[in-house]
Amino acid sequence: MMAQVFAHGQLRLYLLSLLEGGPRHGYELITALQDRFGGTYRPSAGTIYPRLARLEEEGLVRRTEEGRKTTYALTDAGRAELAARSDDLAFLEEGIAETVRDRAEHLRADVRGSMSGLRADLAAAAQQARAAAVPRGPTPADEMRQAAHARRMEAEAMVQRFRDEVRADLRRADAAGQLSQLTVDTVRTVLDTALTAVRGTLR
């Protein structure tokens, strides 16, 4: 479990210390806190602004409106508070450093865990890819499909040869002036008979 970021009253003191260098917007204070914690902690606006309002009520901070922006600055009372609590602030800085180290270690542990999981996923995916790439012999069903395909191709080739030969004979007869209507009718009858016989065989 990560160490607690601020104990009771510590965020109030640290906000005063951040304002010691000059006036700041609320967003700048949030960013400064995030930077101080190395990006491992970022307070929400709902955490910062109520505390700034309380500091203003106590007379330690002065709020100034600048158009649509609001800046906060230390008052003399705020500076006196900081001076009186310099030891508390030093202790707080040590605690923040420890918290940053603790949070960084947890983040590193999370990253290591994520990387381990990623490596396991990649290894499993690679294993599946290798298994899929291994050639396998044809199954009985594959062999039956291949044999049926070969027979169909053979039959289609025979039909194509028959068609080509009949067409060539018709063209020769036509060129010789021997393609009479009787010849055409005879060819039609023969072909119809052959078609009926083939269909009967295939059913």
TrEMBL record:
<feature type="domain" description="Transcription regulator PadR N-terminal">
    <location>
        <begin position="15"/>
        <end position="83"/>
    </location>
</feature>
<protein>
    <recommendedName>
        <fullName>Transcription regulator PadR N-terminal domain-containing protein</fullName>
    </recommendedName>
</protein>
<dbReference type="InterPro" id="IPR036388">
    <property type="entry name" value="WH-like_DNA-bd_sf"/>
</dbReference>
<dbReference type="InterPro" id="IPR036390">
    <property type="entry name" value="WH_DNA-bd_sf"/>
</dbReference>
<dbReference type="Pfam" id="PF03551">
    <property type="entry name" value="PadR"/>
</dbReference>
<dbReference type="InterPro" id="IPR005149">
    <property type="entry name" value="Tscrpt_reg_PadR_N"/>
</dbReference>
